[in-house]
């Protein structure tokens, strides 16, 4: 397809932040874009057809995919972006809260992907871009459960890519660093806070706010999604932003003891 007619794209979690900017970038690139949000939007992105879809609900996901097929007849690109955060000590979250986090960040990706794969297989063509994080590559004190979802997404995506290549489908990862998005909208607090973690949790939240304020613009991630979507021979991973590139290099090439020491220093933890 030409640049003016790239195909049909679905972006989950397109109501704000990275998802919204990505949907708009793909629209400019020539895709017919459908976006999803949990609730109806009063201000949908220009040129993007918004659908109400809860990625934690099988019927809701399938209904959204069926709607796109009726209206567009195909789906060439899926961007799994919907996700939530959780900041606090791992011990401070109940199993129920951890399960809810995984239900969005991991099983939500699985639901949407499973609904899309039969469509792409019939087409013998498709690209799936999963939005991961540098926290899928490194330890993340006071983000342990969130980081666990991204570690899971990394393993799932890389393995799935090997399974579906012969069907004309590729699965790739985009790994942002810290992005300037609405902190309060994207973070969840522990449902059973414990006093031994009060100071460390507060320090971790302060650090996160500071990092977010000087983080990459969402457009940095959107540009990398476009690159990953359009690449004729895609790479397995695309790092988005200076911090993400640095972390990827450090994790891959430097000694574990060095990484451990500097990670604790960065997070203000005693050696």
- What is the tally of beta strands? 7
The number of helical elements comes to 10
Order of helices and strands: EHEEHEHHEHEHHHEHH
Q: Strand order within the widest sheet?
A: 3-2-1-4-5-6-7
Task: Please identify which CATH superfamily we are dealing with.
Answer: NAD(P)-binding Rossmann-like Domain
Based on secondary structure, the structural category is: alpha/beta
Gap between N and C termini, in Å?
55 Å
Query: What overall form do the CA principal axes indicate?
Result: globular
Counted up, domains total 1
- Here the CATH topology equals Rossmann fold
At the first level of CATH, what is the class? Alpha Beta
CATH architecture: 3-Layer(aba) Sandwich
Helical percentage: 40-55%
Strand content: 5-15%
Radius of gyration: 19 Å
**Contiguous uncertain segments of 5+ residues:** none
Sheet having the most strands: 7 strands, parallel
Q: Please state the average pLDDT score.
A: 94
Pfam family, one: adh_short
GO molecular function, one term: oxidoreductase activity
Keywords: Oxidoreductase
Protein name: Oxidoreductase
Topology of helices and strands:
Blueprint: E1 7-11, H1 17-29, E2 31-37, E3 48-52, H2 58-72, E4 77-80, H3 95-105, H4 107-123, E5 126-131, H5 144-164, E6 169-176, H6 183-186, H7 198-213, H8 218-230, E7 237-240, H9 242-253, H10 256-266
Parallel strand pairs: 1-2, 1-4, 2-3, 4-5, 5-6, 6-7
Helix pairs in contact: 1-8, 2-4, 3-5
Describe what this molecule looks like in 3D:
With 271 residues, this protein is an alpha/beta fold. The chain has a single domain (3-243), classed as Rossmann fold, CATH 3.40.50.720. The protein is built from 10 helices and 7 strands. It has a 7-stranded parallel sheet with strand order 3-2-1-4-5-6-7, sandwiched between helices. Strand 5, helix 5 (144-164) and strand 6 (169-176) form a beta-alpha-beta unit. It is globular.
